[in-house]
Structure formats: C-alpha cells, structure tokens
Write a structure and sequence with these properties.
Layout: E1 3-6, E2 17-20, H1 25-32, E3 42-49, E4 52-63, E5 66-67, E6 74-75, H2 79-93, H3 103-106, H4 120-124, H5 146-155, H6 172-185, H7 189-201, E7 206-207, H8 232-240, H9 243-252, H10 257-260, E8 277-278, H11 280-291, E9 295-296, E10 299-300, H12 304-311, E11 346-350, E12 356-360, E13 365-371, H13 385-399
Antiparallel strand pairs: 1-2, 2-4, 3-4, 3-13, 4-5, 6-8, 7-8, 9-10, 11-12, 12-13
C-alpha cells in the first residue's frame, strides 16, 4: 500500500504524483526539510526496497523561477561513473570482455607508452595510472572533443604510483571506460548505454549526451564549484604544487573547469566521468535491480554471480589521489553514511556537489538522489545530505523485518 501526495499541478495530471510508501514517511520528511527555501535549490529522491519502488519524491527549485517537478533531471558529476561501470558488467556477463584481459586487447592504441600490461580490472579500480586531467589538453574546451581526449589518454604514460595502489581517476575514468565499451561493441558509448541500461530498465533518464528536446529539463546548478568560493585558477595552481594535494589537483582540477561545468555545451559532449545527467528515479531503478539480486519487475538485469564479482573489494591500499583507503570494487565505492555503522555489503557512486546513488546488497535497499544545490554554504565540493538520508533509510529497512 502506498500514499500518493500531489504537487501543485492540477489533479488531472497523474505524472505529478509523488509516491510515498507509508513505511518511508520519515525519510520523505527528512528530504522535504532540506528544500524549504529557494536558496536551498531543489532535488529528488527515489528508493527501491526488495525490488519495489517505495519512494519517489522531489521538492524545491530547479531554477530561480522554476520549481522542481517530476521530469527535472540534474548534472550529477561522478555519480555517472557507477552507471558507466554497470555497462561494463553487462558486457562482461555476456563474455564480450574479460576483467583480467589487457585493455590493449580491445583498444590497441591504449598499449602505447608502456601501458600494454594494464588490465580492465586495473582500469575499473583506478589503477591505470591515468588520473591526470590537468594539462591533458591545451584548453578547457578541448575536453569537449571526445576523440581528441581518448587519443591523448592512449598516448600518455601511466603514473608509476599505480603499482603501489589506486589513484582516483576523477575525470578521466569516464573516457577510459567509454572508449573500452566502444571498442568492444563497435558502437558509440551513448548508444550502448541506451541498449544496456536505459532499455532494459525501461527508463530514458541516463544521459551523457543529452538530447536537445530534454535539455530544458536540466536543473540549473549553483553556486559555483570553486572550493570555499576561492578563485579556481589560483587555488588549483597552488594545490597542484603542494605534495599532499598535488594528486587531487591533477585528477580533478583542470584549468577552466569551473567555467566549463556551467557551459551548456557540456550536455552535447560525452564525458562520462562527470557530465552524466540523470533523474533520481533512473539511478534508484538501476541500483534497485542490483540490490534485488539482479532482478526488477520480474526481469533479470544482472546475474547474482556478476553482482558478486562487481561488488567485491579489489584494493584496500591508500589512494594516492584521495589520500584515503576507498576500498574500490569494480567501478564503485562503498556508500558513505553519516553514522558509525556503515553498510557492509553495498556499492554505489557519489558525485561532487551532493548527488549520488547506491545499492545495499544485504537489505535490498537502493537510493538515488540528485540535486542542483552544490554542497553546503561552506563548500560546493559536497556535504552530508545523502549521507544523512542514507542513515534514515537504513534505520527504516532494519525495522522492516
């Protein structure tokens, strides 16, 4: 049984209905409390539990003069890495690629500059040594040229630190995975996303290249992405020269990136490491299938054996970019909750600014959350909104025995 809560649009338009299972009302209340004022922006939250959609809600503002509605989608940054990784696992399940095969077996040019031994498993766990995006291209707009970027990555030597541990490929990961997929299938990456993710799940909102007719649905991001409001160029240059932060600046702070993320042209390019545009509904549906043993609505999306492989931690070493031990699995990280107790068997991916999604394989819960308010009032890089929503959700499913 569910409770339907209508938005401000006429009752005759059923697509405006919010969906709230009574068991998840406390989670809905916590979400709505986050978007009471225009300066808080807007967002959407969707949850699946044991294969059933139990929450599909939204609130706030998509722009200064536009309320967030059912069809609003958002640029979700690194959240898209989890979707791109899932494409790889769908292909691996059918034997189209092997995790322990060399990337160069599928993409011969990748083997240049001594990279011939790097495997698909290395790539999926950020151990390819190609984390550097800063300085990869001559100008910020060059990052919009997919072919030029993948050619540059293929010809770049790997960072030798990859042999000691992972180095988060904050921006480059998406291009590397996309080109691997394109070489394996002989199809453009965005078409493969449609065929392997959007089509099987019955929902279109998985975009790295957003169709023109859907771009008006994209929420406007704010404030600027600059760390602590500081000048991007000055800050990134300083961080790139300081030992402990050099890797992060190299991986995530290319020149002009703060301007590029606000350029509408990013929605017409393929940059899967950060420019994915999604609805919370789409993200939660994909992870809902994963959380439910690979099955949703009676259709198998992934085998249990595949999910076991993709969720197994591959490295516990310190990440030389992040400076922590993220425990990377094959294309995902463990979800982060604002609690001492963390899910023991869960995978997902969060994005800079706050959006993210995950699947808890033990409880059968999935959450998808997107927002246009980048971070908190202190920093645009991220905050605890999804981490707190996750705590509430986990408590509710623990009590539903």
């Amino acid at each position: 049984m569910t409770t339907s809560v209508r938005s401000h649009r006429p009752a005759a338009a059923p697509r405006t209905e919010l969906h709230v299972d009574p068991r998840f009302l406390p989670l809905a209340d916590r979400f709505f409390a986050m978007y009471r004022q225009p300066q808080q922006g807007g967002g959407a939250l969707t949850a699946y539990f044991r294969g059933e959609k139990v929450l599909d809600i939204w609130a706030g503002w998509a722009d200064r003069d536009r309320r967030w509605d059912r069809d609003t989608v958002a640029l979700s940054f690194s959240t898209g890495k989890g979707v791109a990784s899932t494409v790889v696992h769908r292909l691996a399940e059918r034997g189209l690629l092997d995790y322990d095969a060399r990337v160069a077996d599928y993409w011969p040019e990748f083997g240049a500059a001594g990279k011939d031994a790097i495997t698909v498993r290395d790539l999926l766990t950020h151990r390819a040594g190609l984390h550097r995006v800063r300085g990869l291209m001559r100008s910020p707009l060059d990052l919009l040229d997919y072919d030029a970027v993948v050619q540059a990555l293929a010809s770049t030597p790997a960072d030798p630190r990859r042999l000691r541990g992972p180095g988060y490929h904050a921006v480059t990961y998406g291009w590397l995975v996309a080109e691997l997929v394109a070489r394996v299938t002989a199809k453009p990456f965005v078409r493969v996303v449609e065929e392997e993710i959007a089509g099987p799940l019955g929902i279109d909102d998985f975009w790295y290249l957003v169709p023109e007719q859907h771009r008006p649905r994209i929420a406007k991001l704010f404030p600027h992405i600059n760390p602590a409001g500081l000048n991007w160029e000055l800050t990134s240059t300083v961080l790139a020269r300081v030992g402990p932060t050099r890797g992060l600046a190299e991986a995530a702070m290319p020149t002009g990136f703060d301007v590029l993320v606000r350029n509408p042209a990013v929605h017409g390019a393929v940059m899967p490491g950060w420019n994915g545009v999604f609805s919370a509904r789409a993200l939660a549906r994909m992870y809902g299938a994963i959380a439910n043993g690979g099955v949703l609505d009676g259709r198998r999306f992934l085998r249990r054996s595949t999910i076991e492989q993709m969720s197994t931690v591959q490295t516990r070493d310190r990440d030389y970019v992040l400076g922590i031990r993220p425990q990377w699995s094959l294309g995902y990280h463990r979800p982060i909750l604002a609690s001492r107790e963390q899910p023991r068997n869960a995978i997902g991916h969060y994005g800079v600014g706050g959006s993210g999604a995950y699947a808890d394989l033990d409880s059968g819960l999935s959450l998808g959350f997107v927002t246009n308010r980048l971070g908190s009032s202190f920093t645009a890089l991220g905050d605890l909104r999804l981490a707190r929503l996750g705590v509430e959700a986990q408590a509710l499913v623990r009590n539903d025995k």
